[in-house]
Design goal:
By secondary structure, the protein is an alpha+beta fold. It contains five helices and four strands; from the N terminus they run H-H-H-E-E-H-E-E-H. A four-stranded antiparallel beta sheet has the order 1-2-4-3. A hairpin with a 6-residue loop joins strand 1 and strand 2 (about 75). Helix 3 packs parallel to helix 5. The protein starts with a helix and ends in a 5-residue tail after the last helix.
Length: about 140
């Protein structure tokens, strides 16, 4: 009696429902999909440029390791590896990059997302405040 619900749970947990698969295929098959992807890529490049310029202006002691041609995140080398926690106290959510090193020793990086952020300039301003409020500064 337990095996059937367990098997159903496995299917639910590991497979995407057929109706969702059909909706996804319909979406990516529409004529507007390519136009949407181009507009999204342009918007992401613009957001990345705004974030990078703001960081250079507001926190020049940080090193931007690479400005990506695509993607959703900017990697920076801050002056302190515990800045992600300090940033949260200023209302900014960034990731401590150490957790993203799967095969090599972790470095002191921050991973800053720019995909869904509308107020990048304000976020950079708050990050600068968090960096200035760190102990020893």
């Amino acid at each position: 009696m337990r095996e059937r619900p367990r098997a159903m749970r496995t299917v639910d947990d590991f497979l995407v429902a057929c109706s969702l698969q059909e909706a996804a295929v319909e979406l990516v098959s529409t004529p507007g999909w390519e136009r949407h992807l181009r507009a999204l890529a342009t918007a992401l490049r613009e957001r990345c440029a705004v974030l990078a310029a703001g960081l250079v202006r507001e926190i020049p002691e940080w090193t931007i390791t690479h400005v990506p041609a695509g993607g959703l995140h900017l990697w920076v080398r801050p002056t302190a590896d515990y800045l992600a926690e300090a940033a949260r106290s200023h209302g900014v959510s960034i990731a401590d990059g150490r957790q993203y090193f799967a095969a090599e020793p972790p470095g002191t990086f921050l991973r800053i997302g720019f995909a869904a952020t509308a107020e990048l300039a304000e976020g950079v301003r708050r990050l600068a405040l968090a960096a200035r409020d760190l102990p020893g500064r």
